[in-house]
Amino acid sequence: MRLQLLPLLLACLTTWAIGSSNSSTFYSEHAANFFGRHESASGHTNNWAVLVCASRYWFNYRHMANALGMYRTVKRLGIPDSNIILMLADDVACNTRNRFSGSVYAEAGRHLDLYGENIEVDYRGYEVTVENFIRLLTGRVDPSVPRSKRLLTDDRSNIFVYMTGHGGNEFLKFQDQEEISAFDIADAFEQMWQKKRYNEILFMIDTCQANSMYSQFYSPNILATGSSEIGENSYSYENDNDIGVSVIDSYTHYVLKFMEGINKTSQTSMQDLFNSYDPVKIHSHPGIGSDLFHRPLDKALITDFFGGVAQAEVFPLQEDAGSTSHHKSGSTSLPFASESGTPSLSVVPSATVTSLLTLTDEMHVWDIQRKEVRKWASVFIVGCIVSWVSLVR
């Protein structure tokens, strides 16, 4: 009789063990899914953009238009001004030679004013220096520098760094007064990585011999692209006869043209952008540096760098015992209400908070089921033990 009860006891113990192991496995998998980095996902929680026009003077009109074109694009795709650092000489819009005062255009037809009224320049005029740029990236700014001039990133930040101006083999000129080298930028990015100031970086540069500017990078999670090879110039796209100068560079023009087909929910990848490069139209050979980037380019979305998309989900209010006294019996409970009595829905504008709440709900349901299984398994085991002891006696 004892031997006949032994398989039954083993079955009960197995059921109890499976319930415990499934519970721990469930928690581990969901924690990994929420906090872990995956091959196809960026893992970032916020986006920043650093846009640098390193030139000044009227005849470099196109470089200012390059930076303002990128500024308009990242704002349109969801990155707020608080997360955009714009470095601009800002000596073109109100230049006495500008027939269209207070405006900057990137096309001969002048259909879209890139300057307009809704622009925030963070570093203007002679503030656009190599020192300020390096200090901005590394976070080594003076305590008196306002928050609007700081790159307040962390290890979950994706940063888009765009630079344009006159350059050469492994250097970019800043306002014809100083130069920044490829080594300077590479070391700044390494400091950022060591200080946990970024998750991923997209580095894009439009200048002569642009591809040499990312040749010295050695920090992880950096994707780089440039407008021209070593020994190759970067050319302007078109002139405007009324303005009298070139209004945009060819490489930036075609990048911006491609970006016009992108919206905040687009699934277009960085590989799609790179595939759109046409050396014949651009008049140079754009380069791509992906050896330090850990994700496949066809899995990296353009909005991972150019966008600032925050998902929102509406949750019904779950009343608890303590909140019932604040509502009349039979009335409908609303999450929030204004002073005028107008109800509003509870909206969570963060993908992280939404995912965490969903995870909590799933874990709560599973926890209830697990406790129920363990309860009845325990009762069954106790019953079997009592029966076995009675038979032995």
Layout: helices, strands, pairs:
Blueprint (H helix, E strand, L loop, with lengths): L1 H34 L10 E8 L7 H16 L7 E5 L34 E2 L5 H9 L18 E8 L2 E2 L2 E4 L3 E4 H13 L5 E7 L15 E5 L9 E4 L6 E4 H10 L10 H6 L3 H4 L4 E3 L13 H4 L6 E2 L21 E2 L5 E2 L2 E2 L2 H42 L1
Helix pairs in contact: 1-9, 2-5
Category by helix and strand content:
alpha/beta
**Into which percent range does the helicity of residues fall?**
25-40%
The count of strands amounts to 16
Report how far the terminal alpha carbons are from each other.
Answer: 12 Å
pLDDT below 50 for ≥5 consecutive residues: which ranges?
A: 31-39, 320-354
Gyration radius over CA: 29 Å
Assembly state (oligomeric): single chain
Tell me the overall shape: elongated
Mean pLDDT: 82
Sheet with the most strands, sense and barrel status: 7 strands, mixed
If strands are numbered along the chain, what order do they take across the biggest sheet?
A: 3-2-1-4-8-9-12
| Beta-strand residue fraction | 15-25%
Number of helices: 9
Which sequence of SSEs, written as H and E, runs from N to C?
Answer: HEHEEHEEEEHEEEEHHHEHEEEEH
Please characterize this protein's 3D structure.
Residues 31-39 and 320-354 have low confidence and may be disordered. A hairpin with a 6-residue loop joins strand 10 (236-239) and strand 11. By secondary structure, this protein is of the alpha/beta class. It starts with a helix and ends with a helix. The strands form 5 sheets. A 7-stranded mixed β-sheet has the order 3-2-1-4-8-9-12. The chain has helices spanning 2-35, 61-76, 130-138, 182-194, 250-259, 270-275, 279-282, 303-306, 351-392, and strands at 46-53, 84-88, 123-124, 157-164, 167-168, 171-174, 178-181, 200-206, 222-226, 236-239, 246-249, 287-289, 313-314, 336-337, 343-344, 347-348. It is elongated, with a radius of gyration of 29 Å. The chain is built from 9 helices and 16 strands.
